[in-house]
Structure to design on (271 residues):
């Protein structure tokens, strides 16, 4: 999606 | 053996309603302390995290930790067979949990229905979300937040949320024009459910997709108040607190211009 961050940009995978 | 009996069965219906639009399959992780669920939506932009404490059930029994992999559409179909006043009991055999038993009892205990839901193996990614000190924490009536999301969707598919000490402002800009809603902190001692409070470390301004936000507002029937937690360049946390736990939604911000 253009112009949208993803959650993995902020949180690490467990 | 896993068994959880919820006297307020309608709560389970509402919880399911607040999750099922965001995710289709999810693991309910059961442990001694309660039931939890964490699932991301398909596009990996939003996440829902649900926690229900064991004390909220009567009785609650879970001998060892295990996961129930559930297709939420199927569960929803079965839950529609429960009356709003029914007591709902969930049961599973934790050693070979290939199905979940749902027992619906009416208040006079004259009608008891029992359903078995087939379970599935769900390989789900889990994110580790640390405890965060947010720049801004806003408490407001959940119905107001729902209305703002619904109203601003008329104008645009995104909303900018600005929080300062004196107000929280929601702004939308679209092809037809612009719209904004500003709310000032109020404290109504006799009606705490209507109060608006802002705790601010520093001002924030973030843009989010309204489609996801309005999806989160399916949690509105769970709580009179909603908590919005924001920090610059961090996902938004939207939390609905209940007597027996909470539902939290996380949403990654949109990339600024």
């Amino acid at each position: 999606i253009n112009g949208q961050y993803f959650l993995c940009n902020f949180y690490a995978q467990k | 053996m896993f068994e959880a009996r919820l006297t307020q069965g309608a709560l389970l219906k509402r919880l399911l309603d607040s999750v099922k639009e965001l995710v289709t399959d999810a693991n309910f992780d059961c442990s001694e302390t309660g039931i939890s669920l964490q699932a991301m939506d398909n596009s990996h932009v939003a996440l829902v995290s649900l926690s229900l404490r064991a004390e909220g059930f009567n009785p609650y029994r879970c001998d060892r930790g295990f996961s129930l992999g559930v297709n939420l559409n199927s569960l929803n179909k079965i839950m529609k067979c429960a009356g709003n006043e029914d007591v709902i009991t969930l049961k599973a055999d934790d050693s070979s949990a290939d199905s979940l038993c749902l027992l619906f009892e009416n208040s006079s205990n004259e009608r008891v229905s029992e359903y078995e839901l087939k379970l599935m193996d769900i390989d789900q990614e889990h994110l580790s979300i640390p405890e965060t000190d947010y720049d801004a924490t806003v408490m407001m009536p959940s119905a107001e937040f729902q209305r703002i999301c619904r109203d601003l969707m008329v104008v645009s598919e995104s909303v900018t949320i600005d929080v300062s000490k004196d107000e929280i402002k929601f702004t939308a800009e679209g092809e037809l024009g612009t719209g904004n809603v500003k709310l000032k902190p109020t404290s109504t001692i006799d009606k705490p459910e209507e109060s608006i409070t802002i705790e601010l470390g520093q001002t924030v301004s973030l843009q989010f997709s309204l489609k996801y936000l309005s999806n989160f507002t399916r949690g509105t029937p769970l709580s009179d108040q909603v908590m919005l937690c924001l920090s610059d360049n961090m996902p938004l946390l939207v939390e609905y607190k209940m007597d027996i736990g909470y539902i939290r939604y996380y949403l990654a911000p949109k990339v600024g211009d």
